[in-house]
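Hey team,

Filing this mostly as a record. A colleague (T.K.) asked me to run one chain through the structure pipeline before their review meeting, and I want the input and output archived in the tracker in case anyone asks later how it was produced. No errors, nothing strange. Just documentation.

Input sequence:
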Amino acid sequence: MADLFSSDPPERQKPKSGAPLAAAPLAERLRPQMLGDIVGQHHLTGPEGAIGRMVAAGRLSSIILWGPPGTGKTTIARLLADAVGMRFAAISAVFSGVADLKRGFAEAREHARIGTRTLLFVDEIHRFNRAQQDGFLPFVEDGTVVLVGATTENPSFELNAALLSRAQVLVLNRLDAVALAALLNRAEDVEGRPLPLTAEARGALIAHADGDGRFLLNQAETLWSVDLSEPLDPAALGAFLQRRVAVYDKDREGHYGLISALHKSLRGSDPQAALYYLARMLTAGEEPHYVLRRLVRFASEDVGLADPHALAQCLAAKQAYDFLGSPEGELAIVQACLYLATAPKSNAAYRAQKAAWKSARETGSLMPPAHILNAPTKLMRDIGYGKGYAYDHDRAEGFSGANYWPDGMAPHSYYQPTDRGFEKRIAERLAYWEELRRAQL
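Output structure:
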């Protein structure tokens, strides 16, 4: 993959029999020929990395390469096979079925009989269903193949536990600006000419690549394919190239990662970061009602009674968005987001719910004390329902201090307000009532 290419000059590359032709796309011509040429993934390919150690030992175990598009998963697999002298076979879960898998395993067994081991590379492995994934297990276990799977999705969500237990998951990094700049330098060495860009436009091109080296090189190749009279500035570059759309699958890892980042930024009272993640989601096409549901939940879970208006703000934002639609209504979502980020925080209501639910499950069907039960019939009155009930409004303080817990169950304290925001006043009120209750004992 393009983002694994070295920034070293062309003479350091060691061409092989399978080296790309001059007419091949730029990304293919820059495909590295050695693991040492890879950039951006040194934590894996370096001497102390998992891949570096495997190659040094001359023995591979099955692995799953998990990383964003354009981070070199295919290239790593090819170079691994070369580095340890294994036969390389590749299939794509997008285009392959059960028949292709059976044929691949049969070929691997035939080569094993003559002493040649097979590295089977499965691109987009997460696209195989659970039953198809199970089909790999016997061939991985008996050593027919060393499996190298590639996925852009979280393996813990998309791959069988049985398959994951037999493979090591290696995480590839999204390429940073330094690595992407190195790719452009390498491309200019191969092309023998600079990119027709100003320094500012070069930085914009790197930023728009969003960590994908292959995309960056394809854009560079497009720039070289036309005759430009002068270098492009950022505005001209934006008009010339279609801007890359952010990677965001609404039912996959990007979705859960960004909503988690938004939630934790709100909890951490960082309105700037929260607004950034909100923008990431909405500009990538996230359903605004999903974001609003998460904000409503946050208002109860992480703000609670520290600011009772937080929940009202979120519900008002939902109503405003329904009334205005996009894009005008998105400002109401922004307002709710900023309100939550700047509100005092308390998870006391959330913790109280969990504790109360636990008690309810443990105590079964304990009856409330008879004095707080209604008595609509004579029989119920005769057996003591409602007898001795203290009507709080008849007391001077509007507080009777009566016991409301089931017989045989000691009072519990589920809700513990913090000293932040409105909850500080609630805590004072609870303490006052507790003093009155003790005075009546």
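Quick notes for T.K.: The radius of gyration is 32 Å. The chain has a mean pLDDT of 86.
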